[in-house]
């Protein structure tokens, strides 16, 4: 028999750990870093197959984001820089859990790892052997387990004939997604290109803004991860911002995500480590461990608390700005297709009710999507300009190719005649925003620069921004249950459809609270059911959440 292009021998070097089951989850496979080698090896095979299938470069990122330093994870970026298509997730799950070939005698031969791959290759019609090559960009965050896992990923890739691993080193997750997207578009894609593009479009936006005086000082919590490191690099080529990065991950500054980072600040509403009394009232921001989430905060005088300026507020700031630019643009004659430019915002059920009400009052179309970037991104991509954010600070602004080429053509046309008009400037601003903000995935570094550019444009302090609306008090709790998947939701996770009767009980409870809102959903990353409640007072929100936990238990 002729040799199959999948080299069976490698598989044995990465034995499957006993008694664990991995699922691709909301954002790839994630677990304790020490037991991930076989998963990452097989994710390498998966990435190679994905690249062969699409005929394009894909990405493989090693990170566990905001999770503890001992965790790690792996996810695949598709050729457009977005998350791997969902249709491949069942195969991904089957592949990483399939028994090793050695165990052939104990289990049905049909299910072992190599056979599974061979079967899938056939089903999906993945081209082999015709000289096709596959390219996979590898990135990883600063976790100590990253080195060994990188080797496992490379071996997995190398076990597929024609597949090449290209190690891009330590990167933020959004940097890797950006690179994959750009390579496939044939545009500049190195790390320095990324840095230069961000710095340049930021500078252009500031130049296009009125001469407002600015609260230019910004203190950033880097979560002791890769984001802080990259921000310091970016800082060197940025002008007009006074950024001070703490928790950069340098020796002695603390551990990754420990008592710091965007997830900590958002969930605990507490100041991160290395921040103190000197920072009270300052404009501060926090990144997560792999640099794809961003929240702002103002340390308050009372104990360790902060005024949190979360993803919903970032979304609101961006939406205000974009809407204003579109209005300028569309008021101009010659740009009469006002109806044709669609602007939409996408949130999840976690968005604070006050933010949704505010956005709707602005006349914006608000769409709800289930938790997880892949769902929000997809919804946002249906608009000419789609803005999506999770309350936890993950989000971006997507521009349709059609709208961008329209803007470009118009700006070329106007540059000779109407330069200087507000409408012309609006077009230029929108073009620069599309260059600044990551089109592949949420990106804390580009998000931060856009926040700063918009504050500059508006002449707003962080306090003024924060006061756009006031958050309704809310509470999040977890319920540990025997089987979280017994809870099935619909309507972007706002309604329980299984077990029957639960939603009615939640509704009954919620009705007892003024401004009450409550939903429960199975976590995509932890073995728990999450509960969210909102009401007019903190006590009421706490009590509603508590009651909902009891209903779920
Ligand atoms: C993942 C998601 C994040 C989501 C979170 C919810 C991506 C890149 N990340 O971190 O967007 O908010 O999961 O976790 O999609 P949960 O399902 O445990 O509540
Ligand atoms: Zn992250």
UniProtKB/TrEMBL annotation:
A GO molecular-function descriptor: magnesium ion binding
Active-site residues per Swiss-Prot or TrEMBL entry: 65 (phosphoserine intermediate)
Residues annotated as domain Phosphoacetylglucosamine mutase AMG1: 216-295, 310-460
Enzyme Commission code(s) on record: 5.4.2.3
PROSITE patterns in UniProt: PGM_PMM
Biochemical pathway: Nucleotide-sugar biosynthesis; UDP-N-acetyl-alpha-D-glucosamine biosynthesis; N-acetyl-alpha-D-glucosamine 1-phosphate from alpha-D-glucosamine 6-phosphate (route I): step 2/2
Pfam families per UniProt: AMG1_II, AMG1_III, PGM_PMM_I, PGM_PMM_IV
Cleavable signal peptide: none
Family assignment from sequence similarity: Belongs to the phosphohexose mutase family.
Protein name in UniProt: Phosphoacetylglucosamine mutase
């Amino acid at each position: 028999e002729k040799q199959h292009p999948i080299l069976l021998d490698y598989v044995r070097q990465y034995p499957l750990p006993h008694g664990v089951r991995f699922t691709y989850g909301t954002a790839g496979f994630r677990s304790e870093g020490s037991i991930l080698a076989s998963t990452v090896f097989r994710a390498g095979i998966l990435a190679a197959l994905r690249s062969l299938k699409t005929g394009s470069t894909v990405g493989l990122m090693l990170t566990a984001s905001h999770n503890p330093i001992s965790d790690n994870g792996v996810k695949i970026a598709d050729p457009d820089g977005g998350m791997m298509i969902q249709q491949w997730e069942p195969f991904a799950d089957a592949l990483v859990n399939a028994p090793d070939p050695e165990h052939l005698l104990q289990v049905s031969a049909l299910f072992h790892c190599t056979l599974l791959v061979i079967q899938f290759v056939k089903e999906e019609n993945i081209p082999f052997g015709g000289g096709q090559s596959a390219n996979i960009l590898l990135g990883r965050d600063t976790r100590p387990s990253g080195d060994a896992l990188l080797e496992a990923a490379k071996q997995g890739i190398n076990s597929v004939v024609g597949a090449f691993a290209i190690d891009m080193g330590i990167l933020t997750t959004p940097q890797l997604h950006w690179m994959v997207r750009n390579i496939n578009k044939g545009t500049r894609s190195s790390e320095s290109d990324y840095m230069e593009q961000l710095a340049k479009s930021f500078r252009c936006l500031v130049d296009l803004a009125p001469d407002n005086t600015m609260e230019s000082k910004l203190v950033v919590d880097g979560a002791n991860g890769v984001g802080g490191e990259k921000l310091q690099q970016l800082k060197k080529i940025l002008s007009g911002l006074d950024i001070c990065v703490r928790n950069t991950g340098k020796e002695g500054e603390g551990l990754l995500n420990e008592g710091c980072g965007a997830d900590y600040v958002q969930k605990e509403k507490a100041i991160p480590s290395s921040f103190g009394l000197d920072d009270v009232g300052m404009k501060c921001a926090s990144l997560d461990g792999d640099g794809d989430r961003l929240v702002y905060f103002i340390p308050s005088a009372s104990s360790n608390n902060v005024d949190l300026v979360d993803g919903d507020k970032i979304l609101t700031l961006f939406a205000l700005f974009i809407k204003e630019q579109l209005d300028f643009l569309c008021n101009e004659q010659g740009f009469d297709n006002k109806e044709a430019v669609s602007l939409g915002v996408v949130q999840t059920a976690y968005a604070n009710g006050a933010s949704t009400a505010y956005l709707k009052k602005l006349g914006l179309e608000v769409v709800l999507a289930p938790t997880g970037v892949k769902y929000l991104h997809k919804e946002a991509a249906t608009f000419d300009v789609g803005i999506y954010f999770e309350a936890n600070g993950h989000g971006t602004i997507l521009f349709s190719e059609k709208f961008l080429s329209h803007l470009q053509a118009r700006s070329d046309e106007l540059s000779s005649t109407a330069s200087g008009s507000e409408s012309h400037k609006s077009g230029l601003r929108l073009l620069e925003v599309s260059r600044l903000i990551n089109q592949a995935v949420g990106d804390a570094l580009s998000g931060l620069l856009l926040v700063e550019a918009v504050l500059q444009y508006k002449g707003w302090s962080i306090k003024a921004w924060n006061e756009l609306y006031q958050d309704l008090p809310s509470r999040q709790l977890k319920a540990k249950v025997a089987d979280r998947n017994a809870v099935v939701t619909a309507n972007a996770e706002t309604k329980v459809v299984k077990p029957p009767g639960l939603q009615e009980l939640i509704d009954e409870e919620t009705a007892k609270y003024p401004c009450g809102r409550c939903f429960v959903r199975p976590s995509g990353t932890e073995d728990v059911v999450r509960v969210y409640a909102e009401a007019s007072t903190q006590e009421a929100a706490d009590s509603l959440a508590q009651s909902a936990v009891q209903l779920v238990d």
